[in-house]
Design brief:
The complex is a heterodimer of chains A (425) and B (518). By secondary structure, chain A is of the alpha+beta class. Chain A folds into 4 domains: 7-89 and 409-418, Uridine Diphospho-n-acetylenolpyruvylglucosamine Reductase, domain 2 (2-Layer Sandwich); 94-211, Uridine Diphospho-n-acetylenolpyruvylglucosamine Reductase, domain 3 (2-Layer Sandwich); 215-287, Alpha-Beta Plaits, CATH 3.30.70; 307-388, Alpha-Beta Plaits. Chain A is built from 13 helices and 19 strands. In chain A, a hairpin with a 4-residue loop joins strand 17 and strand 18. Chain A is globular, with a radius of gyration of 22 Å. The mean pLDDT of chain A is 96. Chain B has 518 residues and is an alpha+beta fold. Chain B has 4 domains: 31-123, Uridine Diphospho-n-acetylenolpyruvylglucosamine Reductase, domain 2 (2-Layer Sandwich); 130-247, Uridine Diphospho-n-acetylenolpyruvylglucosamine Reductase, domain 3 (2-Layer Sandwich), CATH 3.30.465; 249-365, Alpha-Beta Plaits (2-Layer Sandwich); 467-511, no CATH class. Helix content of chain B is 33%, strand content 18%. Chain B has 17 helices and 19 strands. In chain B, a hairpin with a 4-residue loop joins strand 6 and strand 7. In chain B, helix 8 packs across helix 10. The radius of gyration of chain B is 23 Å and the shape is globular. Classes of the chains: A alpha+beta (425), B alpha+beta (518). Chains A and B meet through strand 9, helix 7, strand 11, helix 9 and helix 13 of A and strand 10, helix 7, helix 8, helix 10 and helix 16 of B.
């Protein structure tokens, strides 16, 4: 760790940054990165400007944290230091929607919603949900954001076909391209997805698209126990109804609910809805409208920073994880609300911010144990600083040494979001 | 008949009269005797006696992969049976600076598993058990040497299959598929190997054993698995692979449609995609490819067709019926004069027979050919096909086109007779020009065959020095000693640990002409 940037150095850095990028401003309180206040904010409007900014930052030894619209700045660990926030909101816009090729090229600061609007005009969509709301392409990639639609379309790693990134030393590199089928060279896109800005700053992305379905239909059923939820979810994924999403929703109190999304043609969805209603039993009901909380994290709209967990498991382990989380919350004298994809094996959980740190830590341990036993993992995405400071946010990472070596190659001076990622990377 | 790739001006790192196998990239100088002796000793200590092949005659049976034009006899072949055995050999290679190349079934088409004369070939064919089939989790855990089709056969009774289906699926291995990020005819809808591998045990190029990914998705940390899949054996060797299993579709329909020319067939393809239909596969063959397939297999493709499309639709019955009707309509509206729908597996197999046998069938109409694997944006198909036709007519070199039209992955077969003076060179020029066409249309030099040794020299046409240098950062993280399949993928290895532009004298590899310093 180094000392905060001294004022004299700061003036020199500001001047160097200023010759690379027109918009360099002093950071305000709202620019704080999870409690760490940067000195400066750069707002580059092109890949070239980002490169210039990162070269200047390298020359002046500035620690850099990239930012889209700042909707997930408290995710991961707080950075060890942050001298400069590189705000990508001016690097925005759809560059090219090649509808005939089912691809879209976008700048990293483009809000996902804007991408969807643009491609929807051609009857297509980017099959990447935004459960946070207001996320940019770059932010979604950096945090590997996903939602219910991942059952059918996968996640960012299945959709990103080309990437432009700027390295810590300001070098601009591209990987992949504009065609869906391409095995030339290493897939750097995979490496930057979910890397929390620690390997480089993504400035542009090319995604494959899917056609918008003609019809969408939801089938929902209340479930009494996690075992019931698992049994019904399994009956759907192993049937021939090809669900677009299979979500489980378990509020802090009361029974749970299983929601199945069916998409396709009119006749096809009709037939599959009938089958799904039969599979889910007499209490199941269909609806044109999305159920409450659809494609939102269970902590969505919370006024403060509740504990936010991401749990993964093999499909058959879901009941065990839900059960363990609910029992652990009860024993810790708190509550947990869970929601996620029973079709993919991903559950998000939230615990109220007033849960004592020690109780929250016990709960995290218990749930992590259940996830690990089911072939998955548990990550603490966010939470009250007093609670998360005492927690192992990422859990055990089997290939950590190799990850550190990758980081060391890309950012040997540890200036990109230092400390935010696994193992203090 | 010989199958060749690349061109004289592009194949392998040393163009010109030197045969491609005799280059620095394949360790032409032979092994360092002391280092190789140490590796052999370590391998003998770790492996059963019959797992080492040192006899020259037997070593020669491993001299090439599916790209038989390149041949190099390895210094040693090992056939490990376990992760520990495999890692022990790799560790010894790393310790003694001996290059190693991993090989599954050896069906690759870019020379990715071409051995090194100074190195060890690590063959996974004795690691062949399907360890777990977990239908409830939609996963299977398999050894790297498990045959692709064997996995599908093993999971079919549970209603599942393994979706990536390269045309060599009867013999190719899952480990090789992982290394090459293999595709197949159905990747238009289902994606590639990278979309179907969720975990792997990796022997790193230093011989460490690490777990990447697993049964569950979104493993915390960098997606190293995503980097390893498709890295062509340069980042380590997978010793166990966890794959996603896909539900067998309720219904499958295959449509064969004949068109006057590739223009109409291409337009029909675009119209189908534009209508929001994502078929499992759309394959195209032009007149020359049809002629060859008909001669070889009597597959009954429409006579006098300038092009045929094989369109496969799968999924829930109601969806498939709708999509089939739409696909037929688009074909008719774009000039299809004959179409036929397979309704049972036998008819489906007959339609596919012509397509699947096309490469081999070309041997009936030409003694030699080069096959390329370039990709273009689908909308550029008519333009690029016309440009290929122009190339063909201006050079007098015949080109048969068989390809995955849905995703723009071309497989032009450039025909020649190597006994005719200059014919090989002319074919190589046409083949290289086709790859340039792909690049200039925003495409890729390889859609599924991999870069290997064959197209390494083409990488700088598609990527800048900075792009390639950045990719090599990953390689340096995994393989600082540069022993994992060196000479493949990248035209010039990066010397790890050296800062670009700052050198104290020449590195010994530079002096030896084995590497360029960036």
């Amino acid at each position: 760790m180094t000392a905060p940037t001294a004022p004299a150095d700061l003036d020199a850095a500001r001047s160097a940054l200023g010759s690379a990028c027109a918009e360099i401003v002093d950071a305000a309180g709202t620019d704080t990165v999870d409690g760490v206040r940067p000195a400066l904010v750069a707002r580059p409007a092109s890949t070239e400007e980002v490169a210039g900014v990162l070269r200047a930052a390298a020359a002046h030894g500035l620690a850099v944290v990239p930012r889209g619209r700042g909707t997930k700045m408290t995710w991961g660990r707080p950075p060890e230091r942050a001298d400069l926030v590189v705000d990508l909101s001016r690097l925005s816009g759809v560059v090219d929607h090649a509808a005939g090729d089912l691809i879209v090229e976008v700048r990293a600061g483009t809000p996902l919603a804007e991408v969807q609007e643009a491609v929807a005009r051609g009857g297509q969509r980017l099959s990447l949900d935004d459960p946070v709301g207001g996320s940019t392409v770059g932010g979604a990639l950096a945090t590997n954001l996903s939602g219910p639609g991942r059952v059918a379309a996968g996640t960012a790693r299945d959709l990103l076909i080309g990437v432009t990134l700027v390295r810590a030393d300001g070098v601009v590199a591209k990987a992949g391209g504009r065609v869906v089928k391409n095995v030339a060279g290493y897939d750097l896109g995979k490496l930057v997805i979910g890397s929390f800005g620690t390997l480089g700053i993504v400035t542009g992305a090319v995604f494959r698209l899917h056609p918008l379905p003609a019809v969408r239909r939801f089938v929902s059923v209340p479930v009494e126990s996690p075992d019931d939820a698992l049994r019904l979810a399994q009956s759907v994924v192993h049937a021939q109804v090809v669900p677009a999403a299979v979500e489980v929703d378990w509020p802090a109190t009361g029974p749970g609910r299983l929601d199945v999304l069916l998409e396709g043609t009119d006749a096809g969805v009709e037939a599959r809805t009938t089958t799904t209603l039969r599979l889910l039993g007499g209490a199941a009901a269909e609806s044109q409208a999305a159920p409450d909380g659809w494609s939102r994290f269970p902590w969505h709209g919370a006024p403060d920073r509740p504990l936010a967990l991401k749990a993964t498991c093999a499909l058959s382990g879901m009941a065990g994880v839900i059960g363990a989380a609910r029992r652990a919350a009860e024993e810790a004298g708190t509550t947990v609300a869970l929601r996620g994809s029973a079709g993919a094996g991903v559950l998000y959980g939230t615990v109220p911010p007033d849960a004592p740190p020690a109780a929250a830590a016990r709960l995290v341990d218990r749930v992590r144990g259940a996830c690990t036993a089911a072939g998955g993992s548990l990550v603490v995405l966010d939470g009250p600083p007093a609670t998360t400071a005492a927690l192992d946010a990422w859990g055990p990472i089997p290939a950590l040494d190799l990850m550190r070596r990758v980081k060391n190659q890309f950012d040997p001076e540890r200036r990109l979001a230092p400390g935010r990622f696994v193992g203090g990377i | 008949m010989s199958v060749t790739h690349g061109t004289e001006s592009t194949a392998g790192p040393v163009p010109g009269p030197v045969p491609p196998e005799e280059t620095a990239a394949t360790g032409a100088g032979g092994p360092d005797p002391a280092a190789m002796a140490a590796v052999k000793a370590a391998a003998r200590a770790a492996l059963p006696p019959d797992a080492l092949i040192e006899d020259h005659i037997r070593l020669r049976t491993y001299e090439c992969d599916g790209l038989a034009h390149y041949r190099v006899t390895p210094a040693l072949v090992v056939l490990p049976e376990t992760t520990d055995q495999l890692a022990a050999v790799v560790r010894a290679c790393a310790e003694h600076g001996v290059p190693f190349v991993a090989r599954g079934s050896g069906t690759g088409l870019s020379g990715g598993a071409l051995p090194r004369a100074d190195g060890v070939l690590v063959v996974t064919s004795r690691m062949r058990s399907i360890r777990e089939i977990r239908p409830a989790d939609q996963r299977a855990v398999v050894d790297p040497g498990v045959i692709n089709l064997a996995l599908t056969k093993a999971t079919t009774p549970d209603g599942y299959y393994y979706a990536p289906d390269p045309s060599s699926q009867q013999v190719c291995s899952i480990g090789g598929n992982l290394a090459e990020n293999s595709g197949g005819a159905h990747c238009l809808k289902y994606g590639f190997t990278t979309n179907h591998v969720t975990g792997a045990t990796l022997a790193t190029p230093q011989g460490d054993v690490v777990e990447l990914g697993g049964l569950a998705p979104d493993t915390p940390g960098y997606d190293l698995l995503g980097a390893v899949v498709g890295s062509e054996g340069t980042l380590g060797v997978a010793t166990s692979v966890t794959v996603r299993l896909t539900r067998l579709p309720e219904d499958v329909r295959t449509l064969l449609a004949g068109f006057p020319s590739t223009d109409e067939a291409g337009a029909a393809t675009s119209a189908i995609i534009a209508a929001g239909i994502v078929p499992a596969a759309i394959e195209m063959m032009d007149a020359l490819a049809i002629e060859a397939a008909e001669a070889a297999t009597h597959c009954g493709y429409p006579a006098a067709a300038g092009a045929v499309l094989v369109i496969e639709l799968d999924g829930p019955t109601a969806e498939v019926e709708y999509e089939l009707a739409e696909a037929e309509r688009h074909c008719r509206e774009h000039g299809s004069f004959e179409w036929r729908v397979a309704t049972d597996p036998a008819e489906r197999a007959l339609i596919w027979k012509g397509r699947k046998s096309a490469f081999a069938a070309v041997g009936r109409i030409s003694p030699d050919y080069i096959v390329q694997d370039g990709v273009i944006p689908r909308t550029a198909l008519p333009e690029v096909l016309r440009a290929i036709a122009d190339l063909s007519s201006s050079s007098g070199v015949r080109v048969a086109n068989v390809f995955h039209a849905g995703d723009g992955n071309l497989h032009p077969l450039v025909l020649f007779d190597d006994t005719v003076e200059g014919a090989g060179k002319a074919a190589e020029e046409v083949s290289g020009a086709i790859l340039d066409l792909c690049i200039s249309h925003g495409g890729s030099i390889t859609g599924e065959h991999g870069v290997g040794i064959d197209k390494a020299a083409y990488m700088p046409r598609m990527f800048s020095d900075d792009d390639l240098d950045t990719m090599q950062l990953v390689r340096c993280a995994f393989d600082p000693a540069g022993v994992a399949n060196p000479g493949k993928v990248f035209p010039t290895p990066r010397l790890c640990g050296e800062v670009p532009g700052k050198h104290r004298g020449a590195h010994r590899l530079v002096e030896a002409g084995l590497a360029d310093a960036f």
